[in-house]
Amino acid sequence: MLNWLKGDSKRQKDTKTFSSVTEGLQRLYKDRLLPVEQETQFHHFFSPALTDADFASRPMVMLIGQYSTGKSTFIRHLLGRDYPGLRIGPEPTTDKFVAVVHGESDQVIPGNALVVDSSMPFTQLRHLGNAFLSRFECAKLNSPVLEGITLIDSPGVLSGEKQRIQRGYDMEEVVRWFSDRVDMILLLFDVSKLDISDEFRRVIHSLKGNDHKIHILLNKADRVTTPQLMRVYGALMWSLGKVIDTPEVSRVYIGSFWDEPLFNDEQRRLFESEENDLYTNLAQLPRSAAVRKLNDLIKRVRLAKVHAYLLDYLRRKMPTMMGKAKKQTELISKLPDIYKEIAKERNLPLGDFPNPAVMQEKLKGCDFCKFSKLNVKKMDALENMLSVELPKLLALLPEETARAVNAELNQIGAQASPFAVMKTDGQTETSIYQSGWLVAPDPELSRAEFEQLGPGPNGKLSGENAKKKLVESKLPSTVLHKIWKLADVDDDGFLTLFEYALACHLIKMRLDGQDLPATLPPAMLPPDMLPGEVSNSSE
Length: 539
Description:
Elements: H1 2-14, H2 21-39, H3 42-45, H4 52-56, E1 60-65, H5 71-79, E2 97-102, E3 107-110, H6 111-114, H7 130-133, E4 136-141, E5 150-153, H8 171-181, E6 184-190, H9 198-205, E7 214-219, H10 226-243, E8 252-254, H11 268-283, H12 285-317, H13 324-333, H14 335-346, H15 356-363, H16 376-403, H17 447-452, E9 461-462, H18 463-470, H19 477-487, E10 494-495, H20 497-511, H21 531-538
Parallel strand pairs: 1-5, 1-6, 2-4, 6-7, 7-8
Antiparallel strand pairs: 2-5, 3-4, 9-10
């Protein structure tokens, strides 16, 4: 009993306090999760160990698409200039993975040199060897945009006969590695190239598990007319429905993401709205980076837990003497049923277990007898990390998010304009004009209409008479009720000439797409109806 109490007090002392989310993630990973990963061959089955740079790096955005869909052009559009080594053309020009990062001066760092730099989050890519590293480089340049985010340009995914060309490295493995670490994945499609090649299909499948990071860009949309754009959008969604195996509809941004004049500007308003949505999401990435890293670590902890229990189960089921090979083959074939058994025994959700088909392939080359025995102490520490220590980090998130600064994009800013608006705090393309509506209306413009509706002897319009005119706006009754409550300033159930003019003004404001104010601002009242003036006149 005393030993149990001592152990509990020791566990309390081991619970750590952190000054930042990044520091907490780094220390918890090294002290709690990494020992379990090393003991259970996690890095062989799933992904290499994380480094401090993985937790401290800027949020990353990866661009994927077939050749000539505008990936490199989009990066130049964001940066306002070429990055070192950039070449753009209608043929496949980007033949490398390029990490575009912030630097004091223009510099290109080859892949072999880049993966030995521990300050960069790419050191784990060394295990892919020279075949990939000769096709990987880092472009450094001084850009305000890159102070907030890092961009990953990728080679155009091959299509048609070009699929037969051997890259020399596993494209899907590289994409999978990056997709686990980036904050946003942009899939680019050209309105004239909607076919999804076999390689592109495999690349999209390699993103599985990171579907929430995927954003789809239908680029060069100004090259088609409105009826053509509707057909193109429908064809794209049909094609994606067969590849992205999720019931949710993927978010598609429609526009032309470059600096050239629009060929067809019929849908300019739509393009502006879509671009504002996309640029707002990009600018906000530094604010959500800590949340994403915390979420990814929790996902990794849950996977490490089920992996440790699985390997321990397989080891315990092996015979001590004869028939080991036969038993191992039998266990591999029954892996889906084993998942259910472990989930029931350990009270684990089945959704945490890895893909059984992939796991079966990896288990074929292993000797189950050599798997380590389950370390209960380390598993308890992992459970404590999930239930106690990570929730403490969650408490630091609001303060850290408030301190984070938006990425500085040229296309959008904190100060809205008639052409672009940061869609945060309820702002929209129409809300930037709201101040022009929050003024007192001119009652004389509504006098003739007011008199025609027949005010009573007191000079006021009854609700019954006013309703006949107000419902002509076709606004829902709930909206008209709110307008009535705002316009009936003295709250007597009747409308004076000014109150009727105010109701008409609020209706026009709502029909223009503006949100109605929660309470009537003083600027919408004439001086003699302001609260202070009313009380003075009554005295």
